[in-house]
What does this fold into?
Amino acid sequence: MYRLVQEGRTEVFIPKDNDPDNPSASASVFYNPEMEFNRDVNVAVTSVYVRKLMGRKGFEKSQITYCDAFSASGIRGLRVAKEVGISAVLNDWKEEATTLIQKNISHNGLEETAFVSCRNANTLLHSQKFAIVDIDPFGTPSPFLDAAASSASFLLGVTATDTAPLCGAHLKSGMRKYSAVPLNNEFHGEMGLRILIGSIARETAKFEKGIRVLFSHATRHYVRVYAEILHGAKNTDQTLQNLGFVAWCPVCGHRETKEGLAVFLDKTCPCCRNESGGASERKKSERKISGPLWLGPLKDISFCDEVISEADAMTLNKKADVKKLL
It folds into this structure.
């Protein structure tokens, strides 16, 4: 009925109907072994950030709360509870999942620090505050960003696996989900990352929260963001100054960025402009405009250095890949 899987120092039971070579959302409880790398990075990042939070705010570990809003087997939240040592709420709307999560909590001896919740993720996040909120849904995180932005007090982690809409391959879908125009071009991975961060910045701004991107990456079929929450109108206004638009020429690759939410960008490419050319030539050199998106930094270098050191000292199956990425 179950098979035992180990990631880091944590063991979890996984239903046997979840094929490790072809994981499916139709399984009784979803588990994707391909995302172990993502979870390894998450544990190392969270560990470093918790230490910073304790030093800066004077918190005890017992005061720092973590929410894994889409737990499934519970592996992500359980690893944080066991390997980082903070209190974690593991939420899933499926009763089969929460039953398995409780089994995995007991198996790892985490009854004092890990707690099960069986609720809609938005309902939970709108009703409770957490120091750290992690949303890793199956598909787009867009319907949950408002609630996550409301709930997260210090750190927000977001995974998006809908890279086709984010990166412009499914243009209209990306516009509907993220209220932004993406581009499908040679830097489409970075495009998806910046569209997602821009969406996070706009959602947190509604609660007078700014963000500082500690680390983000586009890897295989997903993009991932770790954003520190900065409170107050001043921080919010400074964050919004990092939003803007990019103009890109599909002929020569020339690009121009402009900060602001109400900007003018000439569609004519300055490199391809040919005043004597015909209408067909001018059309070919028309730039494509994308945004609003994040134009600020994608990582904090000193923080990443600390995470590399932390990962080096931890038990991680994907340690070499984690350090290489960071």
